Amino acid sequence: MMNNLTVIIVSFHSENKIFDCINSINKNVRIVVIENSNNKNLKEKLELTYSNVICILSKMNLGYGAGNNLGLSMVDTDYALILNPDVVLNIDTLDNFNLNVRKYPDFGIIAPISKNEEYSNFNFLKDQTIKEVEYVKGFAMFFNMKKVKEINFFDENFFLYFEEIDLCKRLNKKGIKIFIDPSMVVNHFGGASHDSKVNEQMELSRNWHWMWSTFYYHKKHFGYMRSILKIYPKLFSSLLKFLMYLFIFRLNKSAIYKYRFLGLINSILLKKSWYRPKF
Length: 279
Prior knowledge:
alpha/beta, Spore Coat Polysaccharide Biosynthesis Protein SpsA, Chain A, 2 domains, nine-stranded mixed sheet, 9 helices, 42% helix
């Protein structure tokens, strides 16, 4: 079964994490890394170190959804694992996935649990059985390629955040099943998938895109006016906190809320998710 699985890792300045991630994956599994920073040195190092890794330099920062779609376009196996570069698999994660394939051949997505992150819709400490859910978080997702291809994978209008929630919602509408299985365990070191030297710019980018994607997702699935009503408190709060922190010279905090406000405004004005971190 290992040769019927391809791992897709979208990375961006993730040199300090991605090697631990790859080292946790069986060497018989093909791995496609989409490097959004166009780091030629990283590509050379990865491909020299690992015979099962191909690293594609995207030449521009595609973001999470489009980056994964590029990787998925290169998959010729029946299954794919979407994996963040700050995730490390347990030794039996892939073996337990193989067991699930036999039990649930018509699944759309099966996701593992993380030792480091709780799911809002699944408490694995209380219930150790596989559970059908409406959505999963995107740091580790096993795709049944035939099923997920029916909805054309990720919506590339999202640059960052909500892509997996949107994808799961579209699978739900088609009646394609999504599972979380606590027998499949990973370590997810959340918020740590990039090098510390880019932290400040990445924090601004995260806040801009979190707000942009929040409005876009709700507009897409529930309509424009309903989304305006839902998002209005966040818009007002972001503006108020931006001004408050600016007044007391907390410039770092002020910048975060400024970027939250700007992300929302751009989404409300139906502008594309254009902002990119500056290095």
